[in-house]
Task: structure prediction
Amino acid sequence: MMENMTTGGMLEIGGVSSDKLAAACGTPLFVYDEAELERRVQDYKSCFRSELFKTEVIYASKAFVCKAMLDKLKQYGFGLDVVSGGELHLANQSDFPMEQVYFHGNNKTEDELAMALSLGCGTIVVDGIMECRRLVAMANRMEKEVGVLIRINPGIEAHTHKYIVTGDLDSKFGVTFREEEIILELIGLLRESKYTKLNGFHVHIGSQIFDLRAYDALIERMMKFIKKLKSKHMIEVRQLDFGGGFGVRYTAEDEPSSIRKVCKSIIEKCEAEIRNHELQLEKIMIEPGRSIVAEAGYTIYRVGFLKDTPNKSYLFIDGGMADNIRVALYDARYECDLANKMDREKSKKYTVAGKCCESGDILIEGAMLPQAEPGDLLVVYGTGAYGYSMASNYNRLNKPAVAFVKDGKARIVIRRESYADQMRLETNEEVNL
Result:
């Protein structure tokens, strides 16, 4: 976890004290240390390089995306991974270079594919044979050119939660590398059209992966497969996208590799395998998301009531599973502090619980904190990925605001939702059948 400054026992983020942020922006509040975001983006940009092939770092926008984030990524020349019409629309509205956008997903609708083609999306990652047929037909009909990657399921299971493993043979994503005839059919379909250009393959083995040997195994398997296509079918693959999934630190037990080490490991392994198999790969890509935004993000809550039961001491906060579903979804773990009592002894064990009407709305079990009181500020670390992006209006709670902080200044980049915002879609229109 990043080291943060404290003044008089008050946690500071980006040079701004937590109490001032809470007073000015309200709670719950997502806060991003903008300088830390920039450091991580710069590390990927400067470290993921090779003399043997071109490289591209593509940000996985599902982790967290907003116009301010896209503006920052544009400055560093990143690509952008989108998985829906909504993310594609935001990219377009943010003037993100569409030729650097990669459209993923296992069930893209016809409207979404049409939008991607109309907007000039640079690359569409096809997930299977049915989607490929539809894409080729639409590209022909619309007379729109597009680059294509085929998503390959490499059959590698990373050591992570079953809901975030994506590379095993029964995953819903991609075509397994064993289904060679289907892959050849996909390649043939794309080559038949003058509008679809096969660029290469995309693979992804999961999320929150700490053991870099999983990527070594992935690179070896894909390079052998590409060599087989070349020698057996005279098919030359030019680009390979290894996805993301690089682990981050949520608790003291987590031991992620640095961005520099991750990049060095992948680049060196790719260079060795390309030379070993005498391949002509022109470009290697990766898609970090979580590892850029997770540790740069915090959530500040206001403590409400406290309650002791026979076996637990509950500390209730003004948010919960509506702004962080990850705990209930796959037992994610976090660490926290009382932001206004950083200099106090952590003398009591609390169960930090949210305000949603669910027994499972528990954010952290067994959190050692100072004696808490109503009105205290609780800060949860490492919430920058999949917090806001997975937030909901469960129990009709308003989605929190998002603030970027840097050099003692703060700016709201996503405003807090209001009750009026929630009512804007309510209607009583008759349907014209």
Notes: DSSP finds twelve helices and 21 strands in the chain. The first helix runs from residue 18 to 25. The chain has two domains: 6-32+296-423, 48-293.
